[in-house]
Amino acid sequence: VASAKPAYIAVAAMNYLLRDAEVIAPVDLGDENIWTAHYQKIINNEEMLAIWSTKDEKTVTLDLGCDKIKLYDIWGNSHEVFGEDGRFTISVTDQVKYIVGKFTKIENVSNLYNVSDIVQTAIINDHVKFSITAEASENKSIEVDLPNNIINKDN
Fold it and tell me: pTM here?
């Protein structure tokens, strides 16, 4: 049974993000288990895409036609994400994520890489391990920007 506090935080985050938004339309990403809601944000002239999965966790790559986005989790925590040629690979779960940016398009494209075994929540002293697998045969590099209090170990 969920307590009222997490639900309150999620609704407060959603209300904050939707405060200046007008609904455009859902975006069909070609997967019946991935749902979206597309919004135009009036104040910053940005677009926002709410995205979630009704089944298992999935990795999707979206071509948004922009260099960077701000990615919000269900609780309203955000971080800036830089794309590769306008493409962004995102793990989609049953918890909504909000993608905000100056999109020129929204298209589901082939994944640049897959991420598995993702931990959605971690606290201090938790050890988290996940796998990143490149889809293309060409050499790729992945840059991960970790907060100062997180240690990167290769084992």
Answer: 0.74
Q: What are the pLDDT digits (tens) for 77-90?
A: 999 999 888 999 88
Q: Measured between alpha carbons, how far is 153 from 155 in angstroms, rounded to an integer?
A: 6
Cβ–Cβ < 8 Å for 93, 119: no
Residues 109 and 62: beta-carbon distance below 8 Å? yes
- Assess contact for 96 and 52: CB atoms under 8 A: yes
Q: What angle do CA 21, 23, 25 make, to 5 degrees?
A: 145
CA–CA dist 99, 83 (Å, integer): 12
Rg over alpha carbons for the chain, rounded to the nearest Å, is 16
Residue whose token pair is 């989609």: 92
Give me the half-sphere count of Cα atoms (radius 13 Å) on the Cβ side of residue 8: 3
The helix/strand/coil state of 121 is coil
Kindly report the backbone phi and psi dihedral angles of residue 101, in degrees, each rounded to the nearest multiple of 5, phi listed first. Answer: 180, -175
Beta partners for 69? Answer: 81
**Residue 115 φ then ψ, to 5°:** -115, 130
